From TrEMBL:
Keywords carried by this UniProt record: Aminotransferase, Pyridoxal phosphate, Transferase
Organism of derivation: Salinicola endophyticus
Protein name in UniProt: Diaminobutyrate--2-oxoglutarate transaminase
Database matches in InterPro entries: Aminotrans_3 (IPR005814), Aminotrans_3_PPA_site (IPR049704), Dat (IPR004637), Ectoine_EctB (IPR012773), PyrdxlP-dep_Trfase (IPR015424), PyrdxlP-dep_Trfase_major (IPR015421), PyrdxlP-dep_Trfase_small (IPR015422)
Gene name tied to this protein: ectB
Database matches in NCBIfam families: dat, ectoine_ectB, PRK09264.1
Listed pathway(s): Amine and polyamine biosynthesis; ectoine biosynthesis; L-ectoine from L-aspartate 4-semialdehyde: step 1/3
Similarity annotation: Belongs to the class-III pyridoxal-phosphate-dependent aminotransferase family.
Length: 421
């Protein structure tokens, strides 16, 4: 396989091609094929970007029809039929049935663009600078979002420029069992001498993805919401990884019955792997003046088309939600078994997650790396997360067939045994 040009010209910053050093050609559903004709089951799915798998035929058809009928591809943030259809479908299929009333800001197409816009909006709306974020949170790597991201590897890569405008609080479980970490946050808010500038907003992932698949307790999230309300702080749920059905509900916060003031979505929002993000905000928070936050790529018409097609196809009833919860239980069961196998052999491990966002914490990055490298050899693409990369994380497509899911889990189980034999 010819990789010289790739190794020579692409910056050292590349990451996933190091874990999966092959040249991919095609992909369908939950399977990728490389140049040598080898097939891999995909439990990474673009780090949660391909919830509906690769090249889903319904979405592909909608996209191809749009392109071949000369639909608008780029139009800055001008109105298009595709945008209108997207907003109509979002309101009708996703927001209204959930009793949600949000306006939509279309920022640049990546997750970090959406986070930048969301925290800027909170600051503009409240006239305060501080954003509270949580240990192990990951919200992107541009300067504003990076300030709310915990991981030192990214924080140290600013060339020495300090990040600003965020305060870290302990995430749920950070201080061990029996410790409600919100006691500390609430105490600081009530302490005029506690050193915490009253935040404009709190940003949270209900299940931390890059931070190692850490689900916040549902009661904890409810309490966080009421603390925010009591102190006039905006609650921002970053649903970039956990949203779009990943946890078994369209929005991950639905499990807790909370209603954030601001929500960010990206990754699987386009449903097809096209770059796309939006920020949802309570209507009264829309304090933007025309053009006050701009960008060349604000809303991507092709992504409007595939996103709207996915809303119509997958979200008009609760079939997918129920299926994700069912498959989540299959993964949970198998991950629990694998974790027990590891623990019995002296490698302490445990499983955790919500819906199809699940991980096995093997405590050590080297062990997780050994297992995922072996899995790749055996035909499974699966990555790690967490501060040391110690959590093997399953983000398989939500629409994966039971056959592919079980085959992927079998490969993982075999790879664990081979890696640690
Ligand atoms: N927020 C969350 C929760 C994420 O998981 C990510 C990416 O993994 C981001 C923000 C940043 O998204 P992007 O990589 O598209 O900038």
């Amino acid at each position: 396989m010819q990789t010289q040009i790739l190794e020579r010209m692409e910056s050292e910053v590349r990451t996933y091609s190091r874990s999966f050093p092959t040249v991919f050609t095609t992909a369908k559903g939950a399977r990728l094929t490389d140049e040598a004709g080898r097939e891999y089951i995909d439990f990474l799915a673009g780090a949660g970007t391909l919830n509906y798998g690769h090249n889903h035929p319904k979405l592909q058809e909608a996209l191809v029809d749009y392109i071949t009928s000369d639909g608008i591809t780029h139009g800055l943030d001008m109105w298009s039929q595709a945008k209108r259809d997207y907003l109509e479908t979002l309101e009708k299929v996703i927001l209204k049935p959930r009793g949600l009333d949000y306006k939509v800001h279309l920022p640049g197409p990546t997750g970090t663009n959406a986070v930048e816009a969301a925290i800027r909006l909170a600051r503009v709306a409240k006239g305060r600078h501080n954003i509270v974020t949580f240990t192990n949170g990951f919200h992107g790597v541009t300067m504003g979002a990076l300030a709310t991201t915990g991981n030192r590897k990214f924080r140290e890569a600013t060339g020495g420029i300090p990040t600003q405008g965020a305060s870290f609080m302990p995430f749920d479980g950070y201080l061990g069992e029996g410790n409600d970490t919100l006691d500390y946050f609430e105490k600081l808010l009530g302490d005029k001498s506690g050193g915490l500038d009253l935040p404009a907003g709190v940003i949270i992932e209900t299940v931390q993805g890059e931070g190692g698949i850490n689900p916040a307790g549902l009661d904890w999230l409810k309490r966080l919401e009421s603390i925010c309300r009591a102190h006039d702080i905006l609650l921002i749920v970053d649903d970039i990884q956990a949203g779009c059905g990943r946890t078994g509900k369209f929005f991950s916060f639905e499990h807790a019955g909370i209603v954030p003031d601001i929500v960010t979505n990206s990754k699987s929002l386009s449903a097809y792997g096209l770059p796309f993000a939006h920020v949802l905000m309570r209507p009264e928070l829309d304090k933007w003046k025309p053009g006050q936050y701009n960008g060349t790529f604000r809303g991507f018409n092709m992504a409007f088309v595939t996103a709207a097609a996915a809303f119509k196809h997958f979200w008009s009833d609760d079939k997918l939600e129920r299926d994700v919860q069912r498959k989540g239980r299959i993964v949970e069961e198998r991950f629990t078994k694998i974790a027990a196998w590891l623990t019995e052999r002296g490698h302490e491990a445990s499983e955790r997650g919500r819906g199809l966002m699940r991980g096995i914490d093997v405590r050590k990055g080297e062990i997780a790396d050994k297992i995922t490298a072996k899995a790749f050899e055996n035909g499974l693409i699966i990555e790690t997360a967490g501060q040391d990369g110690q959590v093997i994380k399953c983000l398989c497509p939500l629409v994966i067939s039971d056959e592919d899911l079980l085959e992927g889990l079998d490969i993982l189980e075999r790879s664990v045994e081979e890696a640690l034999a």
